Amino acid sequence: GAVVSQHPSRVICKSGTSVKIECRSLDFQATTMFWYRQFPKQSLMLMATSNEGSKATYEQGVEKDKFLINHASLTLSTLTVTSAHPEDSSFYICSARDVVGMNTEAFFGQGTRLTVV
Amino acid sequence: AQSVTQLDSHVSVSEGTPVLLRCNYSSSYSPSLFWYVQHPNKGLQLLLKYTSAATLVKGINGFEAEFKKSETSFHLTKPSAHMSDAAEYFCVVTPREHNFNKFYFGSGTKLNVKP
After folding, report:
1. Is there a contact between A95 and B41 if contact means CB atoms under 8 Å apart?
2. What is the pLDDT at residue B104?
3. Between chains, do B51 and A102 touch, taking CB under 8 Å as contact?
4. If I label B74, which of A46, A71, A117, B4 is the partner at 20 to 30 A Cα–Cα?
């Protein structure tokens, strides 16, 4: 299957700083990328959907200014957690798909464990 | 409105016995449905998908799922569990009304396989 690479896999940052997480589709062009957040022992919560070259669509309750998403190319999307606080500590996962439609699944990155101290 | 419900948060089976992980969905129109597996601190791997072709879908590692529209269910099964199947399983729906462009996850079922 297609490969989605997410970097870094783990990051620890100080409260008040910003952290950028990258999501790359390695062998296909991702017209759409998704960002999820997963709390311990819970399911994945969709944060936002981004299409290349346009603004991301955020789910209700997700702060746009807090979680900046950029999808500048067909193979790269970034999530920046701005002014991070301990409550932002979580497991963040990206996914990507190349063709929108019924038959296409999303391919997931390995996730990024963010710890804000 | 659309949602997906996984009825069991934990399932425990003995190695070699059948596995049943339940999933029910609600969607205004026929959605696409997926099962993904997540091993600890890892990303998600696709097990199988339903896209309105055959209602019985075969996936990887011996898993299969049957789409039952009348019951709005998409339960995941495997005839014989293996120790390596221990993981968390997510049922996912992509609604037609969002042009199949949004993935909604169930709450997950943690499968434990006893020796």
Report:
1. no
2. 85
3. yes
4. A46
